[in-house]
Every structure is written in C-alpha cells, then in structure tokens.
Amino acid sequence: MVIRMILGLLGLMWAGYGAWxxxxxxxxxxxxxxxxxxxxxxxxxxxxxxxxQMAVGVLLPGGALRRAATSICARLMADCRWPWGCCCSAVxxxxx
Length: 96
Fold this sequence. Notes:
Layout: H1 2-23, H2 27-31, H3 39-65, H4 67-79, H5 83-94
Helix pairs in contact: 1-3, 1-5, 3-4, 4-5
C-alpha cells in the first residue's frame, strides 16, 4: 500500500513538472540553466523535459491503481536510479 501511495504521489509530481516544462520551456533557463538558442531547441526541450516527464507521470499512477503494474513501476523507478524509486524497491523487498 505504501508503494502504491508513493507511486501515485510521484506520478502527480512528474506529470505536473512535465506539463510546466511543456508549457514554458524557457523556465528551464532559471531552474536548471538550460536554454534553447533556436526554435528547434525549444521543441527539443518541450519533448525531452515536458513530454518524457509527463509520460512517466502518466505511467506511475497506473502502478498505483493496478496491483499487477505496481512491481513494474517500482522497478522502473529503482532501475533509473531515482531516489524515490529506491524507496519503493526497498519497501517491496522488505515485504517479501
């Protein structure tokens, strides 16, 4: 249950950040020091920092809502070396 709550919360956070990056890629200049010098660069920032984060944000609640997908989503987070994913994996392994 804890893993599923963490995945749901992370999904909301990732989707929100992705939507923000997609809507305003110029904000990355202030937040992360990344900026686009041309229109094609802005498209790339939207795809990479907006689209990818939104995709992860949509995937993670699937793991929270469907028991069969919980393990897959927790493993994805851990395999990608995201700190919260490591917490999900630790809780999952401790419950075995």
